[in-house]
């Protein structure tokens, strides 16, 4: 299991650093820059190779591929920006595929919660509701007034949620 060793907290540093760096970049510029993603991806690959050797690098590549599999459809349907997907590729390189899976699941839940709260606070819940129906019914055609929240916040919360759930044997939700 991911948290069985005494120094397991050390294995949290690289994936956490990837998401925190992406969050800072996203909040500052409303964009995740390609140069940052390339740097994070390279550092994550080096981390995997130095700490875990060739098997770690293979695990990182598999987890990155899994992130691409999860996030590419959301980017193509314009539910997410490509920067979020690229950040998750770097995150995947720094961790295991199972962490990519559960972080993604929890991030989608957190993103939905934030989107609903944002719509309620902006008094645009009705617009969100009808946009969601139109998105499903017309395969991607929505009005130009869509909800936009920085998804790096739910990604980081999803990762924190995964850490807690893993350490409590799934005891959170």
Task: Describe what this molecule looks like in 3D.
This protein is an all-alpha fold. It has one domain (9-167). Helices cover 73% and strands 0% of the residues. The protein contains 6 helices and no strands. Helix 1 (13-29) runs antiparallel to helix 6 and helix 4 (97-121) crosses helix 5.
Record field, number of beta strands: 0
Q: Largest beta sheet, briefly?
A: none
**Series of secondary-structure elements, N-terminal to C-terminal:** HHHHHH
Mean pLDDT: 85
What value does the Rg take, in angstroms?
17 Å
Summarize the structure.
With 173 residues, this protein is mostly helical. It has helices at 13-29, 34-76, 82-93, 97-121, 125-138, 152-167.
Question: Top keywords for this entry?
Answer:
mainly alpha; disordered N terminus; elongated
Write the SSE topology.
Blueprint: H1 13-29, H2 34-76, H3 82-93, H4 97-121, H5 125-138, H6 152-167
Helix pairs in contact: 1-2, 1-3, 1-6, 2-3, 2-4, 4-5, 4-6
């Amino acid at each position: 299991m991911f948290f069985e060793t005494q120094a397991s907290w050390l294995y949290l540093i690289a994936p956490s650093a990837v998401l925190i760096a992406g969050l800072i970049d996203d909040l500052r510029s409303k964009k995740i820059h390609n140069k940052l993603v390339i740097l994070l991806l390279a550092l994550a690959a080096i981390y995997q190779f130095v700490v875990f050797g060739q098997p770690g690098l293979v695990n990182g590549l598999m987890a990155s591929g899994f992130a691409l599999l999860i996030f590419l459809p959301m980017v193509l349907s314009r539910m997410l920006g490509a920067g979020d997907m690229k950040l998750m590729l770097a995150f995947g390189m720094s961790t295991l595929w199972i962490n990519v899976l559960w972080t993604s699941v929890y991030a989608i839940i957190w993103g939905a919660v934030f989107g609903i709260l944002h719509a309620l606070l902006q008094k645009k819940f009705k617009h969100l509701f009808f946009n969601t129906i139109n998105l499903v019914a017309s395969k991607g055609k929505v009005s130009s007034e869509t909800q936009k929240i920085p998804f790096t916040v739910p990604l980081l919360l999803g990762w924190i949620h995964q850490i807690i759930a893993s350490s409590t044997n799934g005891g959170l939700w």
